[in-house]
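Let us work through a complete example step by step.
Step 1: write down the sequence.
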Amino acid sequence: MLVMERRQWNRAVCFILIGAVIFWLYSLSVVNDKASYTRFMIKEMYKEEQIDVLFLGASHVYRGIDPEYIDQSLGVRSYNAGSSNQRPEDSYYLLKEILNETEVKTIVYDINYVMFQQHLNDPTIRTHILLDYFKPSMNKVLYAEDVLKNPIYSNTVVSNVIRYKEGWKMPRQMLVNLSMHLTDNRYKTLDYSYAERETEKYAGRGFVYSYPIMDSELADSVLWEEETISWRQVEYLDRIVSLCEERGVALQFISIPVYENYLRQEPRYQEIYEFFQKKADETGITYVDFNLDENCTVKTEKQYYQDASHLNGKGAGEFSRYLCKKYMENRKEKLEKKQ
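Step 2: predict the structure and record it as tokens.
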């Protein structure tokens, strides 16, 4: 009797293990993420032992700040942790993940007012493209529960199966994906050529270099309205401030410049600036809005933009140089005041 029960138990265990392996293989087969910028950015971040300056924010950041220029100008180790549509709630959990993994001295957070507005169509993909590459941890569970309202998404295997449930309809692609995940060394070693396109390329440490030059000054804009402010996102900005204080990390706010004509569509931009300047003043944080900096001429040149709100690679280099110049000027001014 005991022998039969043991055999039944062993069969059950084997059945569960085989089912788990099949489930895992299926989850790999429905995902082709070899060109994912956030896959590169997060996996490279885990290899960093120390980051002197960490840039955080949405697409203005990962397209607008080149770590190579920052390093050469300031003699530091910088990192670009921007991602598409990264809202403050995403920035908060991403920052926690980074601080849990490596030593960071200074955070530079890009204030993009659009990320603080409520959107009728606010896709969850902005969260998944970060969450999927976090290591298993309580931070990952809390991120999924808080932002996606379901902790199950912290398990990337289960998340893939739920989100790509139509994947089985493309069996050939499934085999290609599975082979990539299991046997492709270029995929495993983060070969940048996998993320190279005709119009842009992944250039390392989170930065994406784009080639196009804007051909139209028109762009969709989100008008600033008090009624549509997302106070949840404002609260997460406060939580970012508190997190930096708790970890003893310096924090600064900037606003990366958009093309000058873009802001003409927003007649209340001065009010936007004052809203965030007040937030900075309340916590003693330095805030520099380069849209209002008359000496920042990048925003007047079409050649530096791929569209009206995003710098191209050449523009990112020019702005990164100016950002370093501004930093050195402010540092010199502070030292002179102390003397």
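Step 3: interpret the result. The chain has a mean pLDDT of 91.
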